[in-house]
Amino acid sequence: MSSMVIVHAKQQASQAYDVAAGSLGSALSSFAVQSGVALSFDPSLTRGLTSVGLKGSYSFEQAKNKLMQGTGLTLVQNKQGSWMVTRSTKTEILPSSENLSSTVLPVINTEAESSNLQQNKRTQLSKLGLKIQQTPQTISVVDQEQIQSQNLQTVSQALNQVAGVTAISYGDGTSYFQSRGYATDVQFDGLPASDGLQYMTQFDLNYYDRVEVQRGASGILSGFGNPGATVNLVRKKPTPDFQINGTVGIGSWNNAFIALDTSGSLNNDQTIRGRAGVSVQDKDSFVDQINNQHGLFYGALSGDIDENTTITLGGAYQKNHTNGVDYGVSLKLLSLNPVAVEPVSASRSTFYGTPWSFADDELYEIYTSLEHKWNENWSSEIAANYRNIDSKSLYGNFWNPISMNDLGNYHIQSQNLKTEWTSLDASIKGQFDWFGLPQSLVLGSNYNRRNQDSYSGGESLGYINIFSTSTVPYKDVPYDYATEATTEQYSVYGQFLMKPFEPLSIILGGRQSWYSNTKSGILPVATAKETYPDINKFSPYAAVTYDLSKSTTAYISYNNIFSPPQAWQTTVDGNLLQAREGEQYEVGLKTQLNAQLGLDIALYQLNDKNRPVADTTHPNFWISTGEAKTRGIDLQLQGKLNSLWKINTGYTYLDSQLTKTEAELKNQDAEEPRHQFKLWTTYNLPFINSYDGTYIGLGLRSQSKTTRSDGAYWQDPYTVADLLFGYQLDNNLKLSLNINNVFDKKYYDRLPAQYYSVYGQPRNVLLSLNFNY
């Protein structure tokens, strides 16, 4: 099993080191972070070994020699410039990492694993275990370093930092996400979960090490699904060396939170490793009368059955409680002839819910994996995941436009959604030589099941003044409608990367999927299970990459789009929607401007038909919009400009048109901006003291005008700026101040239309103390 630490920095002629004496594994981790090199090693080589440490100013050559003194091991460099630990022999250049085993398993520590996932880092979004530069689609990563520096606490906040992804808030704290004009899919450690992201409560971000996003269609990854993007949430895993880190913080609106994470080996041989974490938060909102409390616990165990086989078992439990649920208000009528509307003029803190409204969520999951390395080139894995979410809520909200005298049609609604996902995957992958060049192959099969029991009830109170909801008496609204819907998918898949000659790679693959849908009524009367016709579909995939140089790769790729109708997405007549079909074409260029910095450029076109959208005339029902064409450009820069300056930025252009549909839906895609720019950058000021001293950060989120489906109201372009000021107190402690929306820009997260509206957060601050040992 290979463990990897990746951080990028120039190897200075001389620099100060402070590496504590102790286990060799821990010393190597600290050395990699301080020197800024890419360093990997097999934990079995370092078990039981110690290092005298390193303190003082050394050249890189002097430092590595002193660190490894007396261990019987040495550091050697491969052709790509990264370093590996081997047994002491004469100095040599190792083969390129493409010729090594494709299995890149858990890393030494969370920050090192995620801090620089650039083009030469592998991603779980590739079944072949390809590096980001070799993957012929656009991939963005929100790593642990960015999560900590921005104090990101939810999956929605993380995705909102990715250029080309639009995170749209919902009144109950959930969100839905769009990219390239389409909804997004989700995976957990590479296992797909059908409809597991949109409008779904998620575990706190503290549970995850990083967030990976592959934009565009990815049928080879998930079979049937949405073509906007695939989001992969990568959990934190046990590490061989002991570490403990945490954060305590306070912020605006009585925000108080604490997070703690610890990991390490449970025996001297480091063959049994564990990890556990907890986070708790209690916060009010910028909206009056809203309070949210939640707590998360997670844990994982990883054990080596033998030197080639590792089993991992983990899980998490989280409970949320929100007092005060507010979905906002729709647009206000100005005149009836002609019809004219505008947003309601009120403070962002105005509460349109009832004081007794609530939303409760209970989440838990269990996951496991078994990995076996057959030899240096071939490995296999079996993985399984079960996730359960139980969400209950009781709230009031306004339907339809607000009248000219501030009256709105107020409804009380009760809901209970019980959703569970089961995912299984088995695969084998490896490399073999053909005409002297390495070829890669992966074969696998998986099973996905989603079951949802949906209960709802409603009662109209008629028209009331929108500013008087606090006087609405408590209403116990019983459920009067309930259904059970189940979707299942069986798939077999394969991908083959062949290299006819050295600069050229051809990737061919496909997934054969079998899909079934069932639905039955629970309320008002129980009905027999209705089984919809089974669907089977082959989703082909093809791509060509060409290495223009060691640092630059050009590519072209094709993806098939096929998304069958969901059992819960029916027309007002009770019929399933038509299956959505289409294809995606993408061409791009990925280049490393230096060993630390990657630049990606992509152009794409997606064609599809029968896209499902909410029926604006009949709430809770759906319609198909006809045919659509989406074109765009993705441009992103990720990595380090130098050893002190890190950047993650991107610009996207989107031109999405519904080319054949009903007239009233022509603006359906304008909720996602045509132009979008996002930036997060940090800069260290090392001259303050020997501990890297002061650091600063700047974030920008800018987008062009947007509207909802009816096009009645357009939001003007806006830019939100965030700032970070931090100070490294010593090797283990740092103090940070985040100022979000520093200019207090007023904007909508969810634009007002016929229903609902949600403002973006006003200016707010977070003060946090982070410790890491």
Automatic annotation (TrEMBL):
GO terms for biological process: siderophore transport. Residues 37-88 form the Secretin/TonB short N-terminal domain. SUPFAM superfamilies: Porins. It is found in: Cell outer membrane. One of its GO terms (molecular function) is signaling receptor activity. Keywords: Cell outer membrane, Ion transport, Iron, Iron transport, Membrane, Receptor, TonB box, Transmembrane, Transmembrane beta strand, Transport. Signal peptide: none annotated. It is a multi-pass membrane protein. It holds the Pfam family TonB_dep_Rec_b-barrel. One of its GO terms (cellular component) is cell outer membrane. Belongs to the TonB-dependent receptor family. PANTHER family: FERRICHROME IRON RECEPTOR-RELATED, HYDROXAMATE SIDEROPHORE RECEPTOR FHUE. This is TonB-dependent receptor.
